[in-house]
Amino acid sequence: xxxxxxxxxxxxxxxxxxxxxxxxxxxxxxxxxxxxxxxxxxxxxxxxxxxxxxxxxxxxxxxxxxxxxxxxxxxxxxxxxxxxxxxxxxxxxxxxxxxxxxxxxxxxxxxxxxxxxxxxxxxxxxxxxxxxxxxxxxxxxxxxxxxx
Amino acid sequence: xxxxxxxxxxxxxxxxxxxxxxxxxxxxxxxxxxxxxxxxxxxxxxxxxxxxxxxxxxxxxxxxxxxxxxxxxxxxxxxxxxxxxxxxxxxxxxxxxxxxxxxxxxxxxxxxxxxxxxxxxxxxxxxxxxxxxxxxxxxxxxxxxxxx
Lengths: 148, 148
Hints:
The complex is a heterodimer of chains A (148) and B (148). Chain A has helices at 4-29, 33-51, 54-61, 77-84, 88-100, 115-118, 120-143, and strands at 104-107, 110-113. Chain A has 148 residues and is mainly alpha-helical. Chain A has a single domain (4-143), classed as Arc Repressor Mutant, subunit A (Orthogonal Bundle). Chain A has a two-stranded antiparallel ribbon with strand order 1-2. In chain A, helix 1 packs antiparallel against helix 7. The radius of gyration of chain A is 17 Å and the shape is globular. The longest helix of chain B is centred in the N-terminal third of the chain and has 26 residues, at 4-29. In chain B, strand 1 and strand 2 form a beta hairpin. Chain B has helices at 4-29, 33-47, 54-57, 77-84, 88-100, 115-118, 120-143, and strands at 104-107, 110-113. Chain B contains seven helices and two strands. Chain B is mainly alpha-helical. A two-stranded antiparallel sheet of chain B has the order 1-2. The interface between A and B is large, with 54 and 53 residues.
């Protein structure tokens, strides 16, 4: 359990991390932050049932593979709007745009994020940049006396 | 340096964390994701110069003891647009709305974020949820074999 001081430090330093990460994503993709949020929420929901289980996901990740699309699960626009707390109509409109851009695909049962297929090189760069920012966040927290 | 499998693990789990946090913020504040991002970027920039000055901030570490406004440093709307990679005009428009909503104050030299003046309990509650979400992410990373 974190004390009040730690909670404050975590809030400040994670906010910096979040802002840097979103800055990177908006600059690299040219997308609006709300679209980025929705796309990433769909992508996370598609693989949540696999990632929750380290044994399952490590079958792919330890081989350096992405999670195959056959085992991903589509998610509805309604579920996304509920999980993000965004108005349904906003989500529906944004999703329509993302489908038109080829970043989301409609499938039986809902939506699948397919942005990994559009530009895998850019995605790999983002992963690396994100991990660097995350490692920096952990270092800063420790420097400020927060145990991680 | 992290191996490729860990790049994926870290990226997926940090993405889950950020999505969860943003959803929590949207629900708590009712703000749109772009407004929230702009507001948080301004809040972080206002106190960036104090990050390594624990001598100055020691009295304000508790989440319910916000920094006095005099200690915050204003930031321009242009600097925020650049750091977030958002169009200037978008940021200018969002900032005007946030000033009207009382979340931001215009001062000599730029903008100061004041959400904690408006609703201190909410700011504390969000910092608390954030710390929990952050701790959960770190636990999940360890379960997936990532060294922190």
